[in-house]
Every structure is written in structure tokens, then in C-alpha cells.
Amino acid sequence: MIPSTRLLFLLLLSLSPALAESVPSVLPNGDFEQADPANPQKAAHWDLTDGLGVQWTDAPPIPGTPSHGKAIRMDTAVPETTLVESYTRAGLTQWVFPHPQGNAIAETYGLSLYSEAVPLEPGKAYRVTFDYFSEKGTAGKVWFRCYGDLNGTGVTKRLYEGVVDCASKGTWQTFSGLFHPFKHRPNVTQFKVMLFSYYPAGVCWYDNVRVEAVDEVPAAPAQP
Fold first, then answer.
1. Residues 70-124: tens digit of each pLDDT
2. What distances in angstroms separate CA 88 from CA 50, 51, 67, 100, one per listed residue?
């Protein structure tokens, strides 16, 4: 007979994947499958892409791996001058590259895409998890950025940020990071996720972005 303590451990171990999946993501449309009802050309709850440097499109099929459906594609080999033209056509006038050159955007600014703002739950820590795939080793980052009113001015500013670095070559990989915004900035009220890719120049993809609100673990008491 299996001892009761060991049996309980095995039971919890077998249930752990299901329990992990049961934690809801507070970031809407992190799998990018839902189109914006007001603009079917963009993913719901995410900024509009220019359609060249950054695209919302079907992920590439990889033999032996599950389909990823819709995903975010970034091509950091596109020249700055070409991106300026593409952003202008898309109406993304908030993005300005001063004195654009013919070099790849990977060598200067990189490419990014923001989620919409999501309310924070006071006192929580936040776990960010996502899938990343690059064709030739292009590096990326996912930023968890939190905003609030710093000095009672009524102006919302970025007060906290954390980042998860990511890199892969030829396959999807899962990355994760845990952040504690309220330990550093108790007056933050909302967050955004920013996907970012840069060097070396090439094509990469993001999918299945999850943000989970989790309870903070109390600090262990200091030893005497």
C-alpha cells in the first residue's frame, strides 16, 4: 500500500498541470485568435500593426508541433525607410523614426506591439508567460509595464516595468517571468504588455501571451 503522504503528493503532482491551466489570464486575447469587431484587420485588445514590420497573421506550420493559429509576426530585417512608408500607410503616426536610413530596423529601434491597458488587482504579483519562435535566432523581449498617478497630478505615467528576455531558433519555446509591481510602486493601477524584437535582423513570432494575478508569498522571517 502506498503511504498516505506519498499518495497525496502523487495526486497533487498529477493535478498540477490542470490546476495551472485553471488560473485565468487577465490579459484578453493573448492567443491572438479574436479579431477586433471594429476593425477585423487587427487583433482585439492589441494595437494596430503596420502589416509589414509587425503583422497579425497565421503562424507558420512546424512539422511535429501543434498549430499555433494566429500569432504576431515581426521582421526586424525591414529597413527603416520602408517602415516609415508602411507606418504612414497604416495611419500609425505616433511612431516616428527620426532621420530614417536604409539599414535594418534591428540595428536601431527594433519593433514593438502593445496590448491595451488592463486594470491591476492591488497587492498581487503577476506572472507573464508566452511562446516565442524565431527563424534565425532573432532575440526578443516581453515587457510588463505598469502605470499610475505618481504624485497626485492626475497624469498617468509608467511607474514600473519588468522584462522577460527570449531567444530561440527554429522552434517554439515557452518563457515566463514573475513580477511584483506593488512592492515597488503601490500606486500603480494598470498594466500593458509590450512585445519587442530586435537583433540579429530576422523574423520572429509571439503567441499565447498570458498574464496571471497570483498571491504574493510572504517573506520568510529573518533568522536570529
1. 999 999 999 999 999 999 999 998 767 888 899 999 999 999 999 999 999 999 9
2. 8, 11, 33, 13
**What would the pLDDT profile of 161-187 be if each residue is shown by its tens digit?**
999 999 998 899 999 999 999 999 999
CATH of the domain at 181: 2.60.120.260
Which of 219, 216, 64, 200 lies closest to 134, judged by CA?
A: 200
Residues pairing with 104 in the sheet: 79
The rounded distance, in Å, linking the Cα atoms of 141 and 54 is 15
Domain count, the chain: 1
- Domain assignment present for residue 15? The answer is no
* Exposure string for 158-173, b = 16+ CB within 10 A, e = fewer: ebbbbebebebeeebe
Whether the model clears a pTM of 0.90, i.e. scores above it, the answer is no
**Does residue 1 sit within a domain?**
no
Looking at residue 65, its amino acid is T
